[in-house]
Amino acid sequence: MSQQNRTNETTILVLTLAITIGLVGGLLWWFSNSYRLKGDPLTKAQVETPNSDTFSQVTKVPSGLFSYGGSTTWAPIRTEVDSAIQIVWPRFQLRYTNPAQATPGSTTGIKMLLAGQLAFSQSSRAIKPEENEEAKQLGFSLKEVPVAIDGIAIAVNPNLKISGLTVSQLKDIYTGKITNWEQLGGPKLPITPYSRHLEDSGTIEFFEDNVLTGEKFSSSVQFIPTTTQAIKELAKNRGGIYYASAPEIIGQCNVKPLALGREPEKLILPYKEPYIPSEKCPQQRNQINTDVFQSGQYPITRRLFVIIKQNGQSDEQAGEAYANLLLTDQGQELIAKAGFVRLR
Questions:
Q1: Which of 36, 128, 218, 247 has the greatest number of beta carbons closer than 10 A?
Q2: Percentage above 90 pLDDT, the chain
Q3: What is the pLDDT of residues 288-308, one digit of tens each?
Q4: pLDDT (tens digit, 9 = 90+) per residue, 241-258?
């Protein structure tokens, strides 16, 4: 074979090898960016919340029908998350269970858990010492696993001409020290404070502990069984005010969320600007400003918990599995979609 032919063959081989390496490299680049292969250079956010962390990777998910219940604040999470869990784990069957003779809420959910009516419960507050003590007397312990951050939003009638409140002003409204909007720079109009019942709701207990700081609700507070009913009352009463979990308030058409702050000159909006007025709703809706809840700028935030019965039985396994599913990246994405702030 001539020198010329050998040179041509060498050139062809080199070109072929270069093309092959280029194709393989290009495919690896596309695949790693599409699926984020382990070991690839990632951003800080990607490292903290790997995209590969999915429901299917959770271990020790039991089979069976498991009843759970508790906080009404969790309703948007149940809507987004539970159906997705059932697709991946169809044998892990979840059934939300209402109390027979009480209003659903964190407190009633924990009571049902202690009574053996639930496998695990959902709560918008931490476990109380007396609940831990009751569990010990029954031969097991309770464990709380935080899975999300929530903010408490303040709602008024859309026609009330007031832009925001401080936390101390909010406290004074609910303890009866401020009784007319005129005292806050608004119209001469009596204030009607609405609240759910203390004995049912973790949100109300959190509000009493962290906003009222040990003081009691005034006799002027009108107690309403559900947030849905309270929103209807606000729509009719220009002097009304109510508080609830931010996802239950921000997107509603018939109420106006208020800015809230520790100081009058530092009021924080719980929704993203620009504000969407009632007349543009429901075609457009206000969106939750999760950044101010996550950063701590917004003054009233809290964690949401899965409450697990530690008894070494299937109930404990179900509660642990549910919490672990919510803490995957897939679960956290769905929690964010429901309007809450992800923990990881």
A1: 247
A2: 79
A3: 999 999 999 999 999 999 999
A4: 999 999 999 999 999 999
- Which position has the token pair 């569990």? 135
- In the predicted structure, residue 200 carries a pLDDT above the cut 80: no
| Structure tokens, 92 | 């892990």
**Domains in the chain, ordered, with CATH?**
55-149+302-342 (3.40.190.10), 150-301 (3.40.190.10)
pLDDT at 317 over 80: yes
Question: What whole-number distance in Å separates Cα of residue 228 and Cα of residue 99?
Answer: 18
- The overall pTM is greater than 0.70: yes
